[in-house]
Structures are given as structure tokens and as C-alpha cells.
Amino acid sequence: MDNFVFRKHDNVGAAAAEHDSQFLDDCFVDTGDIKFLFDRKNPKRIIVGRTGAGKTALLYHLAHSNNDVIELSPHDLSLNFIATNKVLAFFEEAGVNLSPFYVLLWKHLLVVELIKAKFKIKDEASYKTFMRTISSIIRKKDRNKELAIDYFETWGNKFWLTTEQRIHELTSRVEQSLTAGVNGKFSNITFNAEGAKKLSVEQRAEVKEHGLDAVSKVQIRELENMLTVLEDNIFDDEKRPYYVTIDMLDEDWADDRIKFKLIRSLIDVVNRFKQLSNVKVILAIRHDLLYKVLHLETIAGFQEEKYKALYLNLKWEKSELEKIVQYRINKLIKHHYTKGDVSFKDVFPAHVDTKDTFDYMLERTFFRPRDIIVFVNECLELCTGKPRITATIIKEAENNYSAERLQSLSNEWSIILPDLMHTSRLLYGLKDHFEVRIITQDFLAGKFEEIVFSLNEQSTDPITKSLYSLYSAKSANFDSVRNYILREFYAIGLIGIKTGPTDSTSWTRTNNLTRLEAGQIRPTSTVFIHPMFFRALGVRL
Prior knowledge:
Helix content: 40-55%
Distance between the termini: 38 Å
Low-confidence stretches: none
Number of strands: 10
């Protein structure tokens, strides 16, 4: 590495896996998770992790394996058509549970995508070839098989249409069924969400009763036994499995309320598709989004426990994250500058202050690949023309890194805590650890005054609402509000909690992302601000 210096824009990869193919191909670190996804008998098929934990990277490697993989995203499926449908919005607002329709929709979409992929249906000619093939495979010996042929005859000639066209046709069936019994009973009804809000109590009850009945009757009758047919007659070759992956569920593809219900129905359908031995449907979902989806509202008969076996929770060890950095630094420098292998220690100092350098940097992460990659890249940004990264550079890079990570945390939790960028400043200027009791009512009032001009009293953020209820409406209990805010900050990783003198410090990352109960935080409990945010929050050490 004689005469080596870092060049402008050197980096060890993109923060987001979808933009990181240059490094993902050569620097993938196998933590053992990928084998669970490949194993069709293993129930784990919903990849759960925080932003930057490696969900998309896993799907990337699955897609680039020597298997038949169908990659889908909500954008591909044109689901915004459902979200903007005025008739569905009317019945949703009236209180009709449309989940059976959403389940039907997902089953139909997945069956179509699987059949299209296996038989390469692209146009009418390929559809006719498919029908000849399927008719020879499936003999009409029982009613299930007859229904399958009926399904392919009814819907098969539309398989090559766009997804939006197929969704439009299926949704039209639902619209007709829903509106048929309402139009004649009520005059001057406007079928949109605002129209539902104008219904009287009696009208709403009658609309709801009709809607529930209509939804229960809207089925693609032939789909009922389709999974059995797929298992026995179509995807029956164990040497040629098919995988369907669905990513990007956290992106802005539909209004949140409809999006959450569609995702919950999708989880239900993924569970149902487990009966297929040679097909595996795999989702990637952010932890905060999954929490919101499952706790948005109570639906009769919905049991979260039965889905937990499906979760593949992503966790990283120090040694695995070290490998990620090691492989990427080696690829960057070896590719441009030398033929020999290059290690982390070749370009980073041994220590920052008295702490091992990698430990110092890792302590300022949530033990996620994205965090450590971003931190290294921030260091490289300051190294143009320099042969090595120094402790001074690392500390300087930490300023931008810490601020960017706080913004990233706010973005990650924006669904649940939209004001987090402002409410996190309740911790600004505090010591790195402190007892809960130092947050008195007057102290919190002072902090609230510092940020109140950035907040809106009509905000949906529960922390903001609790602060206003305490200091404006004066209708809340101070201890309850203080504990609630700390429990929310704990849940997102902003702080750790040492609940008692003999307890160890608990961080949500090491506590299986579980939440603290109201009674677990006491005035004598100790709060630890996460080192990732020391610089961004002006924490005193």
C-alpha cells in the first residue's frame, strides 16, 4: 500500500441494499438466516427487522440463487387502486370489515403470479398452450379439480393483463355486490368516506349489516380449493421449488389505514400458503410497521400468536458486523490500489481515546449493517488525499453520523411517532445517564416549552398528545406521562433503562424488541442515552 491515499467519494457501499449490488455480491455475510428462507419446511417466512438490518439484502441473495424466484413489491401490484377506491372507502368508514376481500385479493394475485411464472404465460397463445397442458395434468375426477379448470378458464385469459387491470376487475365485483343492496334503500348516498360520515346511526348499522353479508358472499368460488390443486398437481416437483418475495411494504404505496389492513391480510395469506410444500412466500417487513399493522385495531378472531412462528427476526453479532466492514474495506482498497488483502486495522487507528476503535464505532450503532457502513463512509468522506483514518477524523465524522442517525430514527418511526425529531430534544443537553427522578414536572415543562413551537396541538403523535394533555389541558398524571415517554424512547432504542440497582441495563435491541410495562420504570431507575445520539443531542459525558 505504498503511496496509497483515499480518493474523493471512496465508500464501502450504499446504505440501502437496493443500491448496493456492487458490494452485496462479494461482501455478503451469511449469518445463517438465509438457510431458514431456503428451507421450505421451516415456518419462518416473514423477515422482521429494523431499518438497515439486512432484510432486502437477504431477499437479494435469495433472488440471485439458482432457484425460481418471483420478486414482487406493492408498487408492482398497483394496490393504490384499492386505496383510492371510493366505494371501498365508504364501507370501510361505515365500519364494514373488508378483510375477507383483501385476503381473496392476495390469494388471487399470488396464484396468478405463480401460474404465470411456471407456465410462462405472456399472451393468448401461451395461455392456450397452458390450458392444453393443465387439462392433461388435471383430470376432472372430482369437484376440486373441476373448480380449478373453471378458475383457469374464467381468469386465465386475463393472466397476461396488467396487475392493475386484474385488480380492477376483481374490485368491480366487490363494488357491485356492496352497492347493490344499498342504492335502493337510501337516497342521495355518496359512495365515498365523507358520504359514510353523514350516515345516521340507524343507516350506519344497516349499511354495516349489508356490507358484512355482501363481503362474505364475494368469493372466487373456484379459488377455495386452489391451494390443494397447486400442491397436488401443479407445484408437485420438490426438485424445482418456487419462491415469491415481497419487499418495500414500508414505502408510500397507499394510504396508511388501507395499507395496514392489506398487510395484515397478506400475513394471513402467507400463513395459508404454508400448505404448499414446494412454494414459499416470503415477506420483508420493518419491525415498527409490523407492530402498527398488528395493533392498529382489534379484529375478532385475529390471534397474533399464531403468526409468531413465521417471523425470522434479524440479529447481528459483533463478529458478523466486523466481517461486513472487513470485506468491504478490502474490496474498496484491493480493487483500486493493491493486490494484497487489506484489513480494518490497516486503515483505522487501534484506539479512539482508550477504547478499541471498532468497539467505539459499534457502540454507536444499533448493531445493524447500515449503521456501521454509514459510519465508515462518514469517515471516508473526510479522508480524501489521506493514507489513513485517524481518531480525530472518526470523532469529526461522528458529528454528521449522529445527526443523520437521529433523522433516520425519526423517519423509521414516523408512522407511530411523527414528531420524534422534535420530542427527542427533551433529552437535549442531559448527561449520558441519569436517574428518572431528575425529570421533575417543572423540568419537563421547561423542556416542553423549548420544543412547543415545533409541535402542533392536533398532532397524532402520542408523545406530543401526552405533553399537551399534561401542560395545556392539565388532564393527565405527571408520573404516567413521564413513564410513557421514557417507555416509548426505550422501545425505539433512543435510551436504555436500568430498572433497579441490581438489574443490568436493558436495551430493546438485546431484549427481543419487547416493550417495557408501565410499572417497570421507577423514579430510582437509571436512563442511559444511546451513544449513537450523543453528538446530535448535545449529551454531556
